[in-house]
Amino acid sequence: MRKTPFFKKNISFIIILFIFSLVLMSQYIIIFEDFINEKIMFFINEKKSHFKIDENDGFMNQFAFNRLDEIIENLPGRIPILEYHIIETPFVYSNYILTKRITKNKKNERFFISSEEFRRHLEILYENGFRNISLDEYLSLMKGNVKDLKRIPPRSKLFVLTFDDATFGQFDFIEDGTNLIVDPDCAVGIMLDFARKNPDFKLNAAFCIDFENVPFLQSEYVGKKLNLLLDLGFELVNHTKSHKPLAKMLKKTNIIVDYEIGKAMEIFESYLGYRVTSINKICYPNGDDSQLLKDYVKKIKYNGREYNFIAALDAEGPLALNPNEETFDPYAIRRIEINKDSFFTCVINVKTIFKMPALVLKKSDIGKIVKTSLSNSFYLDLIKLP
Ligand SMILES: [Zn+2]
Question: Which of 187, 200, 124 is nearest to 161 (CA)?
Fold first, then answer.
């Protein structure tokens, strides 16, 4: 007769022993949790005196190294990407007859805010410690390249500005005799003025442009405006040729999706020439996306050419994620549709906004923070410096 192996014979006993030891271990961790945290804080405070912050020397950025409570506070922190549509300017209202489609009514009024409101939004953001970063800087942050953002003071809240549909009031020219000036009440005019007064406000908003209507209303100046936006530092995003829901189209055929994105690139190129290569992001019309579409838009082939896109914007949703989030998808970047209410409820008054981490000197001798238990039996590297 074959002997039953020891393991098989005592299987139930081993399982009970295993569960029992798990319970014991968890109790042990709970009992000593405060003690462990105290040890970590002591270690951090002791090490803090070892590094200095010098704005001029080779910096790297480290996620809120200063204090453990800052690290914890930042974990659920979100980054608002603000999405604006129509800015109601006195100039447009007194100089243009608007078609029924773009006249304010009950259905579309959520897309309108006045010049005065937009100006106030910039001021309120600034006064509340918000500093604007570009979409590229946001993507760079999400990849962990926080050093790219060393122009931002630590503890600043971050936000991104975007404008959709190239509607009127975003960028208008006023003819002043033979001179052409930027309407000081349009979004670009307001941002130019704000940047003059606050040099750390950068002209880096993204304009998501489609060609369903004439971009920015004045057909004679489209090329001039698109080029000037790039000159000033703004970004252009491909919002398709005719603003059709791409995910719905893709279910039927990819031909329309290729056309909607590829044709828009050709139109951009007709105005921008080689500068069209700076357009490397998509904005989904009506926020209509799907997993299939997110994969599809990475590479679009149209008219014998290939266009690559590194990211894509959704229309509406919760605040964008922060670099601690593993679920971040660059092809589904969340934005907040801004109106009178959402500006406060979804941006300004939100408790958990991601804050710019502190800067830590590269040559710092801090290698890691070591978490120790009573018996010194386990170690946890929280932060590693090169
Ligand atoms: Zn749109």
Answer: 187
The alpha carbon of 166 and the centre of ligand 1 are apart by a number of angstroms equal to 9
**Do 290 and 372 lie in a common domain?**
no
Asked, for residue 70, whether it belongs to a domain, the answer is no
Dihedral over Cα of 191, 275, 136, 244: its sign: positive
Q: Are both 287 and 366 inside the same structural domain?
A: no
> Are both 174 and 234 inside the same structural domain?
yes
Please, which residues have CB less than 5 A from ligand 1, an ion? 164-165
CA of 243 relative to ligand 1 center, distance in Å: 6
Is residue 353 in a domain? Answer: no
| 233: Cα separation from own chain's centroid | 17
CA of 219 to the centre of ligand 1 (A): 19
The dihedral sign for the CA sequence 27, 30, 34, 39 = positive
CA of 216 to the centre of ligand 1 (A): 13
Residue 16: phi and psi, rounded to 5, are -60, -45
State the distance from the centre of ligand 1 to the C-alpha of 212, rounded, in angstroms.
Answer: 10
pLDDT digits (tens, 9 = 90+) for 213-259: 999 989 999 999 999 999 999 999 999 999 999 999 999 999 999 99
| 71 domain residue, yes or no | no
Tens of pLDDT along 116-135? 999 999 999 999 999 999 99
Domain limits for position 108: 76-348
Do 228 and 280 reside in the same domain of the chain?
A: yes
Name the domain count of the chain.
Answer: 3
Assign 62 a pLDDT band (cuts: 50, 70, 90). Answer: very low
Please check whether residue 238 lies inside any domain of the structure. yes
Residue 346 Cα to ligand 1 middle (Å) = 20
Give yes or no: residues 272 and 292 share one domain: yes
Burial of 350-378, coded b for 16+ CB within 10 Å and e otherwise, reads: beebbbbbbbbbeebebeebeeeeeeeee
Question: What is the pLDDT confidence band of residue 9, given thresholds at 50, 70 and 90?
Answer: confident
